[in-house]
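Example 3.2
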Amino acid sequence: MIKEYGIINGKLIPASAGEGAVIIYIDPDEKTRKELVEKYAIDEHTLSSALDPDELARIEFEPEHYAIIFKRPKNYSGAEQFLFLVSSFGMFWYRDKLLIVISEDINFFEGKIFNRVTSIEDVVLKIMYATIYHYLGHLKVINMISDSLEQKINTSMQNEFLINLFSLEKSLVYYLNAINSNGALISRMKQNDRKISFSPESLEIIDDIRIENEQCYKQAEIYSNILAGLMDARVSIVSNNLNILMKKLNIFTIAIMVPTFVVSAFSMNVRIPLSDHTEAFYIILGLALLSVGGFYFFWRYKKW
């Protein structure tokens, strides 16, 4: 799928085929990839890197364009069981055109950050800015899910919620690696500002992007440390809940066994005391109840 946008009156407007300044290639097939390599002189390896979720963020300076591989959070699906993944996309920045290659269909240009776009340079930087905000949004969701799972773990005796927490912790590791990789790319762009010929306004935006990315990394790191540091405690909570349940079951079992023993003792097929007594049934029943009371006070005395 191919989408094209033009920059008109400071906004990105959908454009007809061949007329857009920003062209998005969504999960291109082999034929489209070959066309990109031949028509736009894009390195085949760099093009493959744009669709590889394990590729690190980087920038390459080609004779006719700049190739930027950037990491973004992948759209979450409920089938992934609280596992938040990251993906890569490529921006191939020419003097008057921007090609974006991505593996899934997303709306790149939503939000007020794209209300004022004047150049290809603006589009590149604001996409990076919006991606960082996308990470921050996912981190808030991860934190909310983590709080909800913690409350469920307090009364749970199953491993299901712990497994979900492990998935969240794994997700944060992916995010930390991706955000750190993006940070290295942003720093390199800042160092090569003369080669890229950034305007003074763009340099200020790059500084803002770098600061936001660092804050995003710190926030992800804090969440990751909290999850990792308290995971052992949560495992202990689940084990303790199971022990409490077993204790209650033991109390219930013993509480039944004690009066059962009393009744069984008077039910043997031999001559026993009270066998000829007219009120034997009520006396034995009373002894059974008395044994339950004695067991209860003994249990309280031992503070079991």
